[in-house]
Specification:
heterotrimer; A alpha/beta; B mainly alpha; C mainly alpha; B: mainly alpha; MetI-like fold; 2 domains; flat; C: mainly alpha; 14 helices; about 70% helix
Chain lengths: ~450, ~280, ~290
């Protein structure tokens, strides 16, 4: 009996050792990929790279919400990933806390200003580039041009336009007393989605979270106006928006149940094309409408960025991979892969947009004009981290993701709170946070 | 007797009521999954409609599931980890439970161990990663299986203690007098009598491991070891929900387990479940 | 068996139990609890001990108390229904009849589906525009307008419903062997004494089931109180914080505000409550 125990224990120990040792001694590269739906695409590219350059590339795929816990755990243990493909707000938070290595070398290799379009993500900070933007994702309204034309409406540019259009397009089509199609769909659930939408509307009315001096101004009259507007607009949205996130916007638009929706990528168009090609062909995109107190249309801008982590084991290899990935022909392959996988990316690279190869893909051919609208940013797209030019404030995405703003909007929409009360409560919470963490 | 009383006491009516209630319970349990099955066979164009009847049956979502993601690998990994974790947990818990019920201890340890369930697991991500990484147990089947076993250990031990207590010590002593050693006592006397309870515990441990997202997410960073929950997360976030694939995944992850469980029911448990345990 | 051999066996058999629990469960818990008394953020290099400051912040925050209230409500009702309905279903599936084994197999289904799949399926079933539940209810004329199942009025009900659906099999799985272990003679004796079925249930079944029942109730209570996934995936604590509970509040503070110390404090403050049922359980099963 004792012999058996000894044998079992030693086998377990041996297994442990073998498992621990089985990680090859050749060059390695760990990538933290956070655009899960394109996992197959990046895995293919990583396998390509592994073969070509004899490097063991390991891609870990996590969702947006799990990035911060995962990277924190890895960093605490002393092995952060070599390369991260992470969304803007989180990337800037990592930069602000000193967790990144500069990637200026890669930007210069690619051609700098000759390669990248000007954008809220292509920023030199303290003389270096820390994040390399891939594509662009400004928030835009996708709308049914055919229905608008039917009602004699033009592309909506102001709050009045949108309210009028939403009202006109909320109809009972078959006379059974139930509304069959609503004017607009937007997310109103307790998610980041709502914060993004609301802030885009607020910014287009001149309402900010912080002013240029870094003080909380969420309870400004402009923001309160925006809250009132959202409440009015919600009348023309399906009652279920209380549980809607991005995907629901896609679903309802694709099913023809709404005449307008808001989204940051062309996934709406792609999915609609798969489920209801006629609707997709009849759709177009418009900017976020301007409010009465606003000067011009502004929208929340974001995209995915490459970043290199301080303390990672293979920073040089990371740079080589980024350089390889971002070269126009390979980037175009990536975009085409994404078009197969889940969305149609809007490129933000001059050479890519000018290349004919990009437009050979059927989806890029069919929706070329829409893609181009996404790619040419409204000059005043706002990267939440940079609400005002020149000042980096990672606390703004924190307020967008920690439900402060979301709760304020929900309280106005569903909690019966007055916009003034909701805004001031949220502003108080923000001031408290800033006091504690500065 | 009044008519109502007669009706209630009628065996046939009693049986009918029972069958009706069972059907309700089964219906409640299975309806969402039936819906998933139906949806998984609907083409993309029909997906978002409240129809029970499929107009064109298609396997496109299953193709996508296995073609666009490494689902076969996720499935295999989940099975390996699940079985590994269940065995580890059961063995450790069996030995511990035997010890707690046959020997005297100052404190009631199996109940004290329940205190580890108090902290919401989501806060344990960082320390767990730190510990496992130091032991080189991250990114391994063993590491993940250990984390699952350990999480379920207090539960399993507590339960096995309850079942073992029902087995009289006299049986042990009789066997020991006959010259058996302790291990033989466990395998030949305790296990057969406690088997139904142990199988139930085993199923629960396996189900936990099968569905666990937290530990898998913390400990696994390489594609080849990804389990089902991690794999599914790739196409089911708020930005990228592939309904068809998700429904196909629902079917694939439950159907085999159903068949396996039915098989176990007939073979293993039929004998034991209907045999009464000896009196105390 | 010699005395030393017995001792080795006694301690040897519990060593793995101890070892694993201390290393993998207890240590991380202590780390998390200790964090609550510091000022650590996800990005800070050093930590400083700041005593009860985070706890005071939590206790002063009305949102904390709202979350605690919701948590107790959710935890209690989930456990209540899981245990009682679970017992009911186990009783139904106890006696052999045609289709019994299929019933037992099928009842486990909800427990085997990955949570995200279960939640998304329910979300879809309960969708206001194209969910089959509303569709059917409208057709049958039971309701005039689609119910917003995840809206402010129904959200808590819906999350409890999904949680009960998901974890009912746990109770059934554990009650079944327990029920079967009750010797038939006990029931016969009771019948002889003139007891009807309800009295037999109260005086024979329940007492025999006491141990298992308490374990199931306690564990479901603890696990439902701390359950994060179901509410998070369904409503993220909304709308208007109707389903906000301590685990979500704690997660938001730790990983959305990056204030991991505050998140830990919120969790610790919340789970002190859990000690109550645990201590009650210890008392009631004292031998």
């Amino acid at each position: 009996m004792r012999k058996l125990i000894v044998v079992v224990i030693s086998t377990l120990l041996l297994a442990l050792v073998i498992v621990g040792d089985s990680y090859a001694k050749k060059k390695e590269l760990t990538i933290l990929w956070t655009s899960p739906f394109q996992a197959k695409v990046i895995n293919r590219m990583a396998a390509d790279y592994s073969e070509k350059f004899d490097v063991d590339v390991k891609v870990d795929v996590v969702s947006w919400e799990d990035v911060v816990p995962k990277v924190s755990a890895l960093k605490a243990a002393g092995n952060p990933p070599d390369l991260g493909y992470i969304i803007s707000g989180q990337g800037w938070t990592f930069y602000q806390n000193g967790w990144l290595n500069p990637l200026t070398e890669v930007v210069e290799f690619l051609g700098g200003d000759d390669y990248f379009m000007p954008s809220p993500g292509y920023q030199k900070v303290q003389g270096e580039y820390w994040l390399i933007p891939v594509g662009t994702m400004p928030l835009k309204i996708t709308y049914r041009k055919d229905l608008f034309e039917q009602k004699g409406l033009k592309e909506p540019t102001t709050w009045d336009d949108i309210l009028k259009a939403a009202k006109a397009l909320t109809e009972d089509l078959d006379g059974d007393g139930k509304i069959d199609r609503y004017g607009i769909s937007f997310c109103a659930s307790r998610t980041y989605c709502l914060a993004v939408w609301f802030m885009s509307v607020a910014w287009s009315n001149g309402g900010y979270i912080l002013d240029e001096g870094g003080n909380v101004v969420f309870d400004s009259p402009e923001t309160i106006e925006a809250l009132k507007f959202i409440k009015e607009l919600a009348q023309y949205a399906p009652p279920g928006i209380v549980e809607y996130s991005w995907e629901n916007n896609v679903d309802t638009f694709a099913a023809g149940k709404v005449a307008m929706t808001e989204y940051s990528e062309l996934r709406v168009i792609k999915v609609t094309n798969e489920r209801n090609p006629a609707i997709a062909a009849a759709s177009d995109v418009a900017e976020i409408p301007v409010g009465p107190s606003g000067q011009e249309s502004r929208n929340r801008w974001t995209t995915m960025h490459w970043m290199s982590f301080k303390g990672s084991k293979n920073p040089e290899e990371a740079k080589r991979f980024a350089e390889w990935f971002m070269q126009p022909s390979r980037l175009i392959n990536y975009y085409h892969g994404v078009a197969e996988a889940g969305s149609i990316s809007a490129p933000a690279e001059k050479l890519v947009l000018q290349s004919e190869k990009l437009w050979t893909h059927p989806l890029y051919q069919k929706f070329g004009s829409v893609v181009k609208k996404y790619s040419t940013f409204s000059k005043h797209s706002i990267n939440p981290v940079i609400e005002h030019p020149g000042k980096i404030t990672p606390v703004v995405p924190v307020f967008m993701q920690d439900m402060t703003i979301t709760d304020a909007v929900q309280e106005v929409l569903y909690g019966g709170a007055s916009p003034e009360a909701a805004a001031s409560k949220a502003a108080k919470k923000m001031r408290k946070y800033m006091k504690k963490h500065k | 007797m009044s008519l109502i009383q007669k009706l209630i006491q009628n065996k046939l009516i009693q049986k009918a009521v029972v069958v009706f209630l069972v059907l309700c319970a089964i219906g409640f349990a299975i309806f969402p999954l039936l819906w998933a099955l139906i949806s998984s066979l609907k083409p993309e164009t029909e997906l978002i409609q409240a129809q029970l009847i499929i107009k064109h049956i298609t396997l496109e979502h299953y193709n996508d599931l296995f073609g666009l993601t490494d689902f076969a690998k996720f499935f295999t990994n989940s099975i390996i980890v699940g079985i590994f974790a269940t065995f580890l947990c059961t063995i450790v818990a069996t030995f511990a439970a035997y010890s707690f019920t046959r020997f005297t201890y100052r404190w009631n340890l199996e109940r004290l161990s329940l205190l580890v369930y108090i902290v919401p697991p989501v806060l344990l991500v960082i320390p767990i990663y730190l510990i496992f990484q130091r032991l080189h147990l991250n990114n391994s089947y063993l590491g993940l299986a250990l984390s699952h076993s350990t999480f379920m250990l207090p539960f399993a031990t507590l339960l096995l203690v309850a079942y073992f207590r029902g087995i009289p010590v006299e049986l042990d002593e009789a066997a020991l007098i006959d010259g058996a050693n302790r291990i033989k006592v466990i395998t030949n006397i305790i296990l057969p009598l406690a088997l139904p309870g142990m199988v139930a515990t085993g199923i629960i441990v396996f189900a936990f491991s099968w569905n666990d997202y937290l530990y898998a997410f913390t400990l696994i960073s390489v594609p080849e070891l990804r389990t089902i929950p991690l794999g599914i997360a790739q196409f089911s976030q708020s930005q990228y929900m592939e309904w068809g694939m998700l429904m196909a995944a629902a079917v694939i992850t439950t159907l085999p387990m159903l068949l396996f469980f039915l098989f176990i029911q007939r073979k293993l448990l039929a004998g034991f479940i209907f045999a009464p345990i000896v009196e105390k | 068996m010699k005395k030393n051999e017995v001792k080795i066996f006694k301690y040897g058999t519990v060593a793995p139990f101890y070892g694993l629990i201390i290393a993998i469960s207890a240590l991380p818990s202590f780390y998390a609890i200790y964090t609550a008394f510091t000022d650590k953020t996800l990005f800070s290099e050093e930590w400083h001990f700041i005593g009860l400051a985070n706890f005071i912040t939590a206790f002063k925050d009305p949102v904390f108390w709202l979350a605690l209230k919701n948590n107790l409500f959710y935890g209690f009702f989930c456990t209540f229904f899981q245990v009682t309905l679970g017992l009911g279903v186990a009783l139904l599936l106890l006696k052999p009849f045609k289709g019994n084994s299929i019933g037992r197999g099928v009842i486990v289904f909800p427990y085997l589906v990955p949570t995200i799949v279960a939640v998304m399926t329910f979300k879809w079933l309960l969708n206001d525009l194209y969910g089959i539940v509303n569709h059917t209810l409208l057709r049958l004329g039971v309701i005039e307008q689609g119910i917003s199942w995840l809206g402010p009025s129904f959200a808590m009900f819906t999350v409890i419903l999904v949680a009960v659906w998901r974890y009912l099999p746990f109770a059934v799985l554990l009650f079944l062997p327990g029920l079967q272990a009750i010797p038939g003679e006990f029931y016969d004796a009771a019948k002889v004494d003139g007891a009807n079925s309800i009295q037999r249930f109260i005086h024979v079944t329940l007492p025999q089931l006491k141990h298992v029942f308490l374990i199931v109730a306690l564990l479901r209570g603890i696990w439902m109180f701390n359950d994060f996934d179901i509410i998070w995936l369904l409503t993220k604590g909304g709308p208007v914080k109707r389903t906000l509970h301590i685990p979500i509040l704690s997660y938001t503070e730790a990983f959305r505000q990056y204030d991991i110390a505050q998140g830990s404090a919120t969790a610790v403050a919340g789970f002190i409550i859990l000690l109550v049922p645990i201590i009650l359980y210890f008392r009631s099963t004292r031998e």
